[in-house]
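Technical annex B. To support the medicinal chemistry partners, we prepared a structural model of the target in complex with zinc ion, based solely on the information shown next.
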Amino acid sequence: MNTNELTALLNEDRTARLMANITRRAARLFQDGYIATPTMSGLFVQTFQVVSPEGKRYSVKVSKTNAEPGTFFGDKCSCPCFAEVKTCKHLQAVRLELEQDAALEAQAEREEEARTFFAEAACAY
Ligand SMILES: [Zn+2]
């Protein structure tokens, strides 16, 4: 293995550890005291302001399209991590929250449908 290969391998390892760390931090970002406030909901993107417990503010943009992160319709965060690796804990935490909200909403809808079904069935007999 030459020096270039070794450098590439070390960088790969560093990126893998960084990605794992981002995912781990994102999963508990709001428990750690960060607060996300929706600022805009459009057809292609939703934006949020994320504030850290120390009061640092980040602008997070969540794409509703498959656009490349960092592009006009793509995911984006104003933090230095995103600038480096095109993802970050703020973005992933907001995405997780949105997915959980959508899952809860879908479940509530299914329960409402079931209630309506049984209420109508009860009326029919
Ligand atoms: Zn960020």
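Notes passed to the chemistry partners:
The radius of gyration is 20 Å.
The pocket of zinc ion is lined by residues 58, 77, 79, 81-82, 88, 90-91 (CB under 6 Å).
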